User: Fold these one by one.
Assistant:
Number 1:
Amino acid sequence: MNTEPGNASIPRPIALDRAFASFDALWSPRIVTSVNDYDVRVAKVEGTHVWHVHDDTDEFFLVLGGELHIDLREPAGERRVTLPQGSLFTVPRGIEHRPHAPKGARILLFEPTGTPTVGDRHDEIPDHVDATTGTPIQI
Amino acid sequence: MNTEPGNASIPRPIALDRAFASFDALWSPRIVTSVNDYDVRVAKVEGTHVWHVHDDTDEFFLVLGGELHIDLREPAGERRVTLPQGSLFTVPRGIEHRPHAPKGARILLFEPTGTPTVGDRHDEIPDHVDATTGTPIQI
């Protein structure tokens, strides 16, 4: 949980604009707060992520700016959902998916602390994707 | 999880604008999706909620429109945090708090499914506050 400087026990509000201004890396989520054993992460994204699957957890996406597409490989076949700014979506556990943002997007994620960005199984990780469980934000 | 009409297995994106347009009640959260055993809820708020505490869970607030204040009774004393649009905050478990939005606000909440809006302990509930664990959104 983000806290007042010098006092680890007092949580403080976070302005998303300041959070996004504090980093430039793409596909490299920053942890803005925690809720019990879950993280709230924000990320700047552009281009295509990697096909991956979280076997044991759903993954929540909220698009704060730009437009995000998520390709899904479901039992019924492959489909793409499109999330304009101000849209949200939950990828169910066990569903292989690949986020994609040709023009860039700013997103907020909610998932259990320790969840890797590339899931439990994934295709070869391209250089532009940060395989991480998130980085605490510094603001 | 919100799903395609007629197919309970296919989740679909939710546009926040449509979600907020679907209800008018104040202090009466609507569940827009679920993430494992957590809910994502949205609420329209105006005026003052009730002092209450969640003994066993943190509670996440994201302000999507307007401005929200949260009064907190912490061991060090009472304070108020102010969350302009685009700000987020987590109220730690066990901390008595009271949301307040004199000019109105639209908020998003993350919390475990079944978490009551008035917590585990609370002052007398005013008529304008819906004591609920959330209502599934209908859009």
Number 2:
Amino acid sequence: MNALAPQLEHPKHPVLVRALPTTTPRRRMLAVGLIGPGRVGSALLTQLRAAQTRLSESGLELKLCGVAASKRMWLDCDDPDLNRRCDRAQIWRPADLRQFARHVLGDDGRHALLIDCSANDEVAAHYAGWLAEGVHVVTPNKLAGSGPLERWQAIRAASHAGARFRYEATVCAGLPVVQTLRDLLDTGDELLAVDGMFSGTLAWLCNRHDGGRPFSALVREAHALGYTEPDPRDDLSGLDVARKLVILAREAGWALSLDDVDVQSLVPAELAALDADAFMARLDELDAPMAAQLAIARAEGGVLRHVASLDRDGRASVKLAVLPASHPFAHTRLTDNVVQFTTRRYHDNPLLVQGPGAGPEVTAAGVFGDLLRIAESLEARA
Amino acid sequence: MNALAPQLEHPKHPVLVRALPTTTPRRRMLAVGLIGPGRVGSALLTQLRAAQTRLSESGLELKLCGVAASKRMWLDCDDPDLNRRCDRAQIWRPADLRQFARHVLGDDGRHALLIDCSANDEVAAHYAGWLAEGVHVVTPNKLAGSGPLERWQAIRAASHAGARFRYEATVCAGLPVVQTLRDLLDTGDELLAVDGMFSGTLAWLCNRHDGGRPFSALVREAHALGYTEPDPRDDLSGLDVARKLVILAREAGWALSLDDVDVQSLVPAELAALDADAFMARLDELDAPMAAQLAIARAEGGVLRHVASLDRDGRASVKLAVLPASHPFAHTRLTDNVVQFTTRRYHDNPLLVQGPGAGPEVTAAGVFGDLLRIAESLEARA
């Protein structure tokens, strides 16, 4: 639907005649600065490099002007040749986000975008200022969207001045969730409820929790497989899921904060304050309560799932729920995320999006998609 | 994520402080002409009217310049006051699509959009010409996307010149399907397969076809409920589903045509040529073959579903399939559509979108979403 026609080879059907522009496509240049060159940031850079020729043919020149890590950063020196050889031309200096943003913005009126792939609250504190200066911001970092309400409102207000703030990858990575909600609302639909499973880890644990093995053994397996955070309590607490719920609520215009979400942690209170090793050593204390929850679900003929729910009466919760075996959430694939929007138009049958909602590549793709959407809206500049 | 902040009331949580622009939003005017004021077109006009204030606050002025039906059309007289009272100021004249397009385009360099809500192939024949003249085109009409390949290629080539062609609502109405595929490809993913149930009618029939009642009784019930087309063969033939598959294949850059799709019609050959009444009178001739299919599915321990499939080896089919009871398609809600993308990134667990995929309101919302996406990309003009 836009100019980035894919170039897939197809054994039987030849690739469509490449639709060459009959006039020069609108040329746009976008200066990009990446903050947080970790797993997601690196995957994004790989994706952007792979797409560069295609983007250029469609009229979009991306210019990577710098990368900032927590302690150091490099800035390109604005020489196109050097920029192309940026790996060799790196000059690392102490990180300074104000200087970094100023450099990416430049002084020639170009379009500029900062991509925050850190998980750092200090970076989020800069968004409103950057947007007010006309710098677009894209991030998979949930801290702005689910952080203090005042800061969020300041970011939204700043983004209304022209620069755009996008954060599709904050909820279920590359799955089309935030944009889908945005489109529903922008076309005049009304959100009645959101229900979902926003944690692949918790989905996997609930799917596998069938009474055959103690819950702690499943947690240990998930930990060994890399499905959990280094400290599994970061998943089991439900806090990360609650953040996603807050982001969706605010997207719908509801002034929800993290404190408003009724979060049921799977971590018993007496294990919450331990250090990570001590927690892992006492993991089997999760077994009895989880077995009891499973027994309740089975007595009701249902399944146990970890569900985030939000309705327009202000109720927001993240908890274990007993669902009927016929419920769509009962049949998701092991680590799948799922989001279900109930709206005025999608009332009897909600709209549902399902699939993997974590991982560097799909998260980076969600960020990349946001970048493309911003690029579509750029006016031609030299 | 854009300026069209929703204004939902929320009993507990006050609506977010409205983020008023601190600078004037970029002002864009878009002249719109609607072709085909049927159920979808009328629903769209209602949605656009309801959104007008919100759009205007975000800097987008929509100006409805005319409506064309198959035989007659009206054009506004370019007087803003009259335009606001267009219901009363209608002057119907014989339909002339060239004149209509010229009128909407105007001669003052404004942005112009034609929305084709007809189901008319003659309208689709105009798209390439309109796009070449700089008129954006949005449609839920499947005839261009699934029609002759040469015409499709001409449309794509014309749209590369600057004017944009969007058609989200051609596949599963308002569900985010075409854009989701577009985003996957544009961010560098590779499509490996599409599988789906693209007909709410056939999904309902398969879901209800449990051996309790003859298949013909279910078709009669669906017909009476308005779930089928006036002639149920338009659903049972699978042709409409095949058109959607062709649209998605071409979106992925594969040169598929309707003839390439292996379509299994549920209508026995001897009933295909009858007139509608004669067909309905002989509907029970569907019962034996459908009962046999169900018996096969049950013998295999599976469920019978009507599935569209496409893979990158060029195989495209629309047919009854026996799926394992654990398959996601086995658990869809009665009339739900479902689309599953298997890609390089979404390989083990595909990306799935599910929900109602037909109806005037959700189809119109899909069209409206396309309009908004085009509006986002418009440069400011007087």
